[in-house]
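Sanity check

After download, print the first record. It should look like this:
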Amino acid sequence: MYIVILMYIVATTPKLASGHSSFSKEIPNACLRDALFWKRHVSNRFECETLCLMLRMCQSVNYRTTDRICHINFKKAYDVHSVVLEKGTTYIRDRKNKTSTPCRWGTCKVNEICAVVQRTNKLCLPFDATKDCDNDSGRLIILNTSDKHKRIVRELLENYGGPRYYFQVGGKKEASGDWVWLNGNVIDSTGPHWFPGNPNGDGICMDLMIKNSIDGLNDYSCRSPISFICEILI
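Expected structure tokens:
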């Protein structure tokens, strides 16, 4: 049996004055719970903020200064009563300018995410959804039955519904041209579970695309870090 997990990737660092933050609101010694999309170790708070700027699903962050852990959240708290006390963590929300980052000026390699160093230089960091799932003793989800596909879509629409969302799943295109799940089972490229018009040659990675309540599998280039769904054996 598997459970399904949706992963949505002390004081402030001295070099980062509050006036230079990319966000307009923060609550010291507080964090937002039950909203985690992705987490990683970063060099400083500014790098944490930059990750949020670059990820479409990010609505806020928890930055833990003690070990420089950045929590990317898929939702935000609307008042101080929505967060919990956590010493050494700063809750940050409300972007000032969504596009003010040098990451907009260039691209990173496959399986990398763009971050910023010292406000002007770009840094490419490793991003591997498959490895993140493996680290939790799981795998990227395999939607190999109609019932499982429908249940996951229903859960996503109820909890994360929006005009358009993408969630990486455990399918890929082989050198032979066949699409396969991570367990080796072949995926029918003309089957009913693909989003209309797909696969269309965009790439060798696969996501579950939801657009205006229409859903289906979609091929993409692997270059853009997106939300992903893990399933863990229990």
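If your output differs, re-run the checksum step. Summary of this record's structure: The CA atoms of residues 17 and 46 lie 10 Å apart.
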